[in-house]
Amino acid sequence: MWFLMLGLLAVALKYFEIGFVATWSWWIVLIPFALAVAWWAWADSSGYTKRKVVERENRRKQERIDRQRSNLGMLSSRSNRKRRGGR
Length: 87
Known about the structure:
This protein is mostly helical. It has 2 domains: 1-46, no CATH class; 47-87. The protein is built from 4 helices and no strands. It has helices at 2-15, 26-46, 48-72, 77-84. It is elongated, with a radius of gyration of 24 Å.
């Protein structure tokens, strides 16, 4: 995502001829887009994207369970052990 935003910023600066970016070649200005494509290809092929989605879903699920237990007045077994001085 950062490469995409950097690329959009560079294109805008080049197009409106603002600052030192106006003197750069278009090839240099477009490099962040190529890097973004390479990043997305790697992230999808390595499973990074799917792993992050699963981690986020598991975290949200656990937060929902903890919130429901708290609303019911039940503490998780982990919290009970901490209160009693257990492991």
